Amino acid sequence: MAMAATDIEALIRAGIPDAEVTITDLAGDGDHYAARVVAASFAGLSRVRQHQAVYAALGGRMGGELHALQLETAVPSGDHQ
Amino acid sequence: MTDSNVRIDELVKANAVVLFMKGTALFPQCGFSSRAIAILEHLKVPYETVDVLQDPEIRQGIKAYSDWPTVPQLYVHGEFVGGSDIMMEMFESGELQQLVGVAAGPGS
Predict the structure, then answer these.
(1) Of A3, A7, A51, B73, which is the most exposed, with the fewest CB atoms less than 10 Å away?
(2) pLDDT tens digits, residue range A24-35?
(3) Rounded to two decimals, what is the model's pTM?
(4) B69 to chain A, minimum CA–CA distance in Å?
(5) Which CATH class is domain A5-79?
(6) Which residues of B are less than 8 Å from A62 in CB distance?
(7) ipTM entry
(8) Can you list the domains of chain B with their CATH numbers?
């Protein structure tokens, strides 16, 4: 089952309130997305932990109804140490 | 630990570089697994693959093992590294080359 880009964005924002979320529908089929998630709260977390935070926000949909999500996470560029 | 956890643990510790994937290195069954293999091929290091499609127990167990919801999953020296997106980021930055112990390409 596919998910709407707006739903993905809303879930990530709900789970990570300071996140700036950009969703791209890669194939135009509502099933293959890329997400870029930038959040100051990611500072100090490993990439794995950052991605896990996004997956947690998606509440178990990843790998289920959300099959293909290419994920990129980052800390806002001004916040680099 | 459950049986699948023990089996996964053995695979992860027995192989310096091991990728849990859908399909085989020759015939990946998913775009993300295919991308992961392409990166490993670029690294030119020996690696082992585990086809989760052939083993339902490992297919489920690997998600709990690493608290990671998707396949492919790369492990290096017994540690979970990430999925194909993280592999790509680390390959581009040269971190992956460092992790597996090969020199990064020219210019990096």
Answers:
(1) A7
(2) 998 888 888 999
(3) 0.88
(4) 6
(5) alpha beta
(6) 69-70
(7) 0.83
(8) 3-100 (3.40.30.10)
